[in-house]
């Protein structure tokens, strides 16, 4: 299992001039918009399970910081424009948090760190960036309340994101895409 979570066996980094970057970013962004919307159709709180976060983290880890950053910025913007979720009150802080997630996990992946170290570090950095943003601008939202409410999503991310990465590496990505 350990061999599947090492970054060196993942697809290569995508550059801004690579068309695949935009295709993967678009696919992950659409997924990050659709699945939270779907959860809301069943009255499952997105702010509790954080379904959008999964796609940003996976995009960043699989394809690097550029894809993670693009997906992290575009997903909440597109979601808001189509579904009005997240609400306009928290939209800037969500954009910042998800952009940091995608950027950080992609950057840490480039440093060839283990998936769990990359994941937990990116999660901590994203949450810290969100909290600093809220406190710096004196916003009326309470990041501590958000963190308490979203703990099921955090647990799911820590449990499922590495498994999804392993599955994608083992069964979906072609052999020539696995080597850097």
**What structural class do helix, strand and pairing data support?**
mainly alpha
**Total separate domains:** 1
List the secondary-structure elements in sequence, H or E: HHHHHHHHH
User: Can you give the mean pLDDT?
Assistant: 85
Beta-strand content:
under 5%
In the CATH hierarchy, the architecture is Orthogonal Bundle
Span from first to last CA?
19 Å
Q: Regarding CATH, which class?
A: Mainly Alpha
How many distinct helices? 9
In short:
With 180 residues, the chain is mostly helical. It contains nine helices and no strands.
Characterization of the model:
With 180 residues, the protein is mainly α. It has a single domain (2-178), classed as Arp2/3 complex 21 kDa subunit ARPC3, CATH 1.10.1760. It contains nine helices and no strands. The protein has helices at residues 19-41, 46-49, 51-63, 65-83, 91-110, 115-136, 143-149, 151-172, 175-178. Helix 3 runs parallel beside helix 5 and helix 4 (65-83) packs antiparallel against helix 5 (91-110). It is globular. The two termini are 19 Å apart.
């Amino acid at each position: 299992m350990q061999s599947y979570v090492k970054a060196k066996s993942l697809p290569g980094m995508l550059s801004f001039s690579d068309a695949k970057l935009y295709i993967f970013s678009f696919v992950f962004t659409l997924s990050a918009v659709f699945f939270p919307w779907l959860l809301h159709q069943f009255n499952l709180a997105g702010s509790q399970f954080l379904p959008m976060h999964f796609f940003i983290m996976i995009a960043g880890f699989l394809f690097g910081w550029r894809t993670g950053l693009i997906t992290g910025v575009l997903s909440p913007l597109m979601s808001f424009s189509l579904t009005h979720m997240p609400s306009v009150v928290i939209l800037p802080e969500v954009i910042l948090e998800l952009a940091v997630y995608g950027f950080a996990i992609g950057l840490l992946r480039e440093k060839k760190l283990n998936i769990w170290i990359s994941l937990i570090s990116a999660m901590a950095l994203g949450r810290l960036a969100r909290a600093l943003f809220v406190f710096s601008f004196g916003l009326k939202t309470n990041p501590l309340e958000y963190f308490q409410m979203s703990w099921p999503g955090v647990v799911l991310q820590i449990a499922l994101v590495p498994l999804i990465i392993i599955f994608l590496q083992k069964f979906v990505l072609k052999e020539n895409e696995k080597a850097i």
